[in-house]
Amino acid sequence: MPQLDVRRFATRAELDAALADRLEQAVRAAAAQSRGGPPVIMLSGGHTPLPAYREVARRRPPRGGPLTIIYSDDRYVAADSDASNYRQTRPLLDALALPEDQVLRVRTELPLEEAAGDYERRLRALLDCGARIGLALLGLGADGHTASLFRPEQLRQSGGHLAIAVQRPDGMQGVSVTPDFLANVAEPLFVVAGGGKHDAIAAFVRQDPDLIALRAVAGHPRVELWLERASELAPSDGR
């Protein structure tokens, strides 16, 4: 299991501000990079990181440059759907003003399996050209999932792949990165806020080997977990 560094924030506002600072720092470091493979930042979906994305956009980060943005996963919906992780990050993407080929979204206009294969090929091309995948944001679901990896069989299915098509428990389909891909990132950062996640957080902190989120990064030497303190409260405490 990886070394786990846990950072707890007293309020959601403090977590949002710290995440915005971390993300802005990664963006500025990428903009200043002059040598080596292209710098890459991986964004996660869900509601938790959205305030940080909007805050970084408000700060007017460096535009253009060598940075490439990729996604941990996305639902198999139209790119302009409110359920699309890509769509939800548009304020940040617009502020960064990156060329289209430096934003690797899941092409959900393709049939599902083709969309997964296409995403995998483009991720592999990044790795093959020496890209450095620095900051990689990940979420943690109440059921212990991360990205769109929900069940042990999906982890088994992902062996040898960088991205796979998945069936989600909510009845939707999606495309997710895999443990093989996550093994290539330099700074995996799980960000957790909101209620209902007490059990998943406790399992993560004690490094439960059965937890899907931990199994997804089991090959990594070090993982960070940032969380709002209130999210650790048990359901009986009112969250």
Proportion of strand residues: 15-25%
Based on CA atoms alone, the radius of gyration comes out at: 17 Å
The oligomeric status of these chains comes to single chain
Total strand segments: 10
Count of alpha/pi helices: 9
Tally of distinct domains: 1
Would you identify the CATH architecture? 3-Layer(aba) Sandwich
Largest sheet: 7 strands, parallel
Classification by helices and strands: alpha/beta
| First and last CA, distance | 29 Å
Order of the strands making up the biggest sheet: 1-10-9-6-2-3-5
Flag low-confidence runs. none
CATH class (first level) name? Alpha Beta
Order of helices and strands: EHEHEEHHEHEHEEHEHHE
Helix content: 25-40%
Overall mean confidence score, pLDDT: 94
CATH topology: Rossmann fold
What would you say this structure looks like, in words?
The chain has helices at residues 12-32, 50-58, 85-88, 90-96, 112-128, 152-157, 179-182, 198-205, 212-216; strands at 3-9, 39-43, 68-71, 73-75, 103-104, 132-138, 163-167, 173-177, 187-192, 222-228. With 239 residues, the protein is α/β, with parallel strands linked by helices. It has one domain (3-229): Rossmann fold (3-Layer(aba) Sandwich), CATH 3.40.50.1360. The strands form 2 sheets. The protein has a 7-stranded parallel sheet with strand order 1-10-9-6-2-3-5, with helices on both faces. Strand 2 (39-43), helix 2 and strand 3 form a beta-alpha-beta unit. Helix 1 packs across helix 2 (50-58) and helix 2 (50-58) runs parallel beside helix 4 (90-96). The longest helix is centred in the N-terminal third of the chain and has 21 residues, at 12-32. The chain is globular, with a radius of gyration of 17 Å. The model has no long low-confidence stretch (mean pLDDT 94).
